[in-house]
Each structure stands twice: as C-alpha cells, then as structure tokens.
Amino acid sequence: MATNARAAICRGNSEPFAIEDVELAELRPDELRVKIIACGVCHTDMAVRDQQLPVPMPVVLGHEGAGIVEEVGSDVTSAKVGDRVVMSFNSCGHCPSCDIDAPTYCYNFFPENWSGGRPDGSATLLQKGEKMNANFFGQSSFATHAIAHDRNVVKVPDSAKDLPLERLAPIGCGLMTGAGAVLNSMKVRKGLPIAVVGVGTVGMAAIMAAKIAGADPIIAVDMNDSRLELAKELGATHAFNAKDDAMGQIKELVPQGLGYAFDTTGINKVIEDLFGLLAPMGIVGMVGASDPSHMLKFNEAEFMGGGRRVMGILGGDSDLKHFLPKLIEYHLNGQFPFDKLIGYFPFEEINEAIESSENGTVVKPVLRIAEEA
Ligand SMILES: NC(=O)c1ccc[n+]([C@@H]2O[C@H](COP(=O)([O-])OP(=O)(O)OC[C@H]3O[C@@H](n4cnc5c(N)ncnc54)[C@H](O)[C@@H]3O)[C@@H](O)[C@H]2O)c1
Ligand SMILES: [Zn+2]
Ligand SMILES: [Zn+2]
C-alpha cells in the first residue's frame, strides 16, 4: 500500500521549494521506508536546483537524511523496523568499484542516485498518482518519509544511542567527504603539513581529520573570517584569508613544501597554485564542484620528477558501513566535534535554511522534520 508523505518539491531556481503532499511507492525487497527525523542541506542540492547537475526536475532533493525505519523489504539486512539510521549515497554492489568496497566510484552512480527514479526507471515517489522525480542519492530526504536501500543505510551504533538523530543527519555527505579525503584518500601522515582551501562543511571536516591524523602545521584558507576563526577552534594551527596572498603566506610558513593540499573550492587557479606549493610526493586532493568546461594545467617535470599527485576525490573514498560508525566514534570521544557547524531550522523554513548556507551565515543547516521521541 502506498504511504502518504509531505515532501519539499524543487522546480528550479526561479521559485522557492514548496512542501506538498506525495505518496511513497511500495517497497522492493532491498528497500526500507524511513520516517525522516532530520536532513542536512548541502551545496549539491543547490547545484541541482540551479541545473548544474543532470538530475531531472521537478524533484525531491535532500541527501543527508537520518530517521527511524518503519518498514523493510524481505532482503534487507542493514537495519530492522525501529532502528535509528543515517543515509548516504547509493551504489549498485556489482561493478568493479563496488567489488573492491569503493562504492563512491560505482560505475552505476548516475542511475542509482541522480536519475530521478530507480535504475529501471520506476518511481519511488508519486504525486497525485504521477511519477515525481526522487530517489536522489537513493533517498530524497527533504520529506517526512523516504524510500532508502540496503546499501545506503547505516544503522546508528548502540554506543551513540544518546546522540540525537538531528545531529547525526549530515554525517553521510560533506562531513564524510572531508574527513575521508584526509584519512582514506590522501592518508595524511603525522607531522606533515596540510593546507585546506575553503573551510565550509567539507573543509572543516578535513581540518578535524587532519588533527586526528597528526598533520602539522594545519593551514586553513578561506575568504570568510568567522569561518577561519572556527577552523582554528577545530584544529587549524594557522588561518590565512585568501584575499591576503594566502599562497605566499603558505610558502613562507612551509618553505620545504606541503605534504598535502586539499581544495574544496573547485577553482582551477586555486588548484594550480596549490600544486605549485607541493613538496616531493605531495598530493593535491580536489573535491569542489567545478565548471564542466574548466581544464587544469601543471608542470610536467615537477609532476613526474617529484612524484607529486593530483587526486580527484568523491565522498572521501568512504566505505559507508565501516567509515560512518568510525566517524560517530570520533565524535563521541570529542575528536570530531562537527556539531559546531550546525544551525537548525524547522522543515517549513527550508528556503531560509538554503539562504543561510548561501550567504555563509550557517556552515551546515539541518532541517528538523519530526520529533524523535
Ligand atoms: N567530491 C565530493 O564527494 C563532494 C561531496 C560534498 C560536497 N562536494 C563539493 O565540495 C564543495 C565544498 O562543499 P561545502 O559544503 O564545504 O561548501 P561551502 O560553500 O560550505 O564551502 C566552500 C568554502 O570555500 C570558500 N571559498 C570560496 N572561494 C574561495 C577562494 N577563492 N579561496 C578560499 N576560499 C574560498 C567559501 O567562503 C566557503 O567557506 C562544493 O563544491 C560541493 O559541491 C563534493
Ligand atoms: Zn552533499
Ligand atoms: Zn557499483
């Protein structure tokens, strides 16, 4: 039987998100229905709204959902009815990347996450009986209820039973990406210098992870001074404003070069400048969304001669089922205090929440969709 729900519908950037009645489709054997308690707002939602990503419209977005499982299909093993879960991106489970537990590079990422329905084209969500585009990142959590999948749901460990779901909601995207880039992708070594350019959610998570890894110094760069202050609270040893020749200041601070440079801005000039600051064997990790027409240029001899690397990173190379519980443990023992980034909004204020992210007043807006108790 279909389940009635309310969902925020995105029809592009010329009109605000509108919360309307929808119906969830019946579950397939590998699917779960989750009552959403909270959902983070991320830049990727806005990139879709602005049609920078090929997701069909109108659509229900939201991909940092946390909630309580209400119903499970017969093949589901990741959670049972009543479990508290967080959701992340979906993957197919049977491609060369999924085979080696690298699901962020799933060969079927687009159909599983961005096609507006299930990979076979069927709808997970309907409005007045017609297909509504959804299944965004295998969830579409700007809604009271969502259909998720066995592969993109992680049960909150019992050790975190006292942590509210509204705090855990954003862990499955930007936070995981920044922390994973440092700990999984670049495998930052103790004692080596790192610079993080752009300290929004992803950059702040990278700073906290760099501290966990023991990097030194940890340099934050942004144009927003209050974000730079917060970055220092979270572990940055130095903070430079991009308007004040940050690259020159980094060069002066670490004349031997950077072990790691992490870019979240997606600006090609920034990435090229960072490449020029690398020590031998240094790595530039890049995650920022960029203009699809942009190209990067760097010196061939420096690239080869120093064994330098330029690394594209998706989702922080996170194998969800292991990495999300690990991040929750870091949070519980005080090493990953991401709650300092969060500002809460009621679901009805979704447009205000998006605005707060775009004007930089809130690093990570989280929508409160239902009471947990
Ligand atoms: N690759 C992935 O898996 C992945 C996952 C999540 C997000 N993203 C992308 O990563 C990027 C960062 O996400 P976020 O949520 O942290 O965004 P954000 O907007 O919160 O953070 C970006 C920060 O960069 C700063 N900035 C902009 N231009 C700058 C410049 N020239 N120099 C220094 N700082 C500058 C901004 O002030 C801001 O604080 C986005 O493009 C997002 O779409 C990628
Ligand atoms: Zn995201
Ligand atoms: Zn796959």
From TrEMBL:
Its cofactor is Zn(2+). It comes from the Bacteria. Keywords: Metal-binding, NAD, Oxidoreductase, Zinc. Pfam families: ADH_N, ADH_zinc_N. SUPFAM superfamilies: GroES-like, NAD(P)-binding Rossmann-fold domains. GO terms for cellular component: cytosol. Residues 12-367 form the Enoyl reductase (ER) domain. GO terms for molecular function: S-(hydroxymethyl)glutathione dehydrogenase [NAD(P)+] activity; zinc ion binding. InterPro entries: ADH-like_C (IPR013149), ADH-like_N (IPR013154), ADH_Zn_CS (IPR002328), ER (IPR020843), GroES-like_sf (IPR011032), NAD(P)-bd_dom_sf (IPR036291). PROSITE patterns: ADH_ZINC. One of its GO terms (biological process) is formaldehyde catabolic process. Belongs to the zinc-containing alcohol dehydrogenase family. PANTHER family: ALCOHOL DEHYDROGENASE (PTHR43880), ALCOHOL DEHYDROGENASE CLASS-3 (PTHR43880:SF12). This is Alcohol dehydrogenase catalytic domain-containing protein. It comes from Altericroceibacterium indicum.
